Amino acid sequence: MPIKTVIVVQARMSSSRFPGKVMMPVIGKSLLYRMVERLKMIRHEVQLIIATSQDAVDGAIEQEALKMGIACYRGSLNNLLDRHYQAAMLFNADNVVKIPSDCPLIDPDIIDDVLGFFFANPGRYDYVSNLHPATFPDGNDVEIMTMACLERTWKEAKRSLELEHTTPYIWENPEKFSIGNLPWNTGNDFSMSHRFTIDYEADYQFIKRVFEELYPENPCFSCQDVLNLLAKKPEVYNINAQYAGVNWYRNHLDELTTISAEQTKLTIS
Asked: 111 Cβ partners below 8 Å, 6+ apart?
């Protein structure tokens, strides 16, 4: 049987900082729709799955998935590791890709590059990402793992941050897993200076503006196209610049052994 790879996109309405962010409108469609549209542009053969919760409010996510013709799994609200694992099991995955739903500007070519690196080294890696260490602009997050890796993580992970963020148990235990990382081939590190993800209202305004500037001419615009836009129009970069470098690591530096304070912005200006 051919090896089956699934992309699991975790999405829910009850974001603590920006509730309903994945359903915010971007050029006539939801932000989630625009992101899935980009995921469909990758060259590798994968199945897309939206994984949401059983909370009544997340019925809106399921309905959006149905409208997009994407499979939907509904599971635990707060245990995202379990939700990820159960979705992968339900669809008989051999390899599982984690793409956060708050990355609507993600470059399909970057996803293909990470998957290509993983598949070019069959049996060598349990887990490959472009995040440890991160070099791409924040919001181009790609993680791929074998089903065996995900299952072991599901069985062994106990800490709340491991259950909430799905993969920390893997990269926090390099002695248990064979881990690979793909750096940005430009040699640059924009992980702390450029923010293409959404957690705050300013992030939404930034993403909406980028789509309005680039999408009409080229729906498959790249990460480099975004960077070119920001160089040409620095006022777009400045929309959410105060949040560049802000990520969830800052709340768990006392628990994470492989993450340093230099990998997150501790205060918001």
From this structure: 39, 42, 44, 97, 99, 142
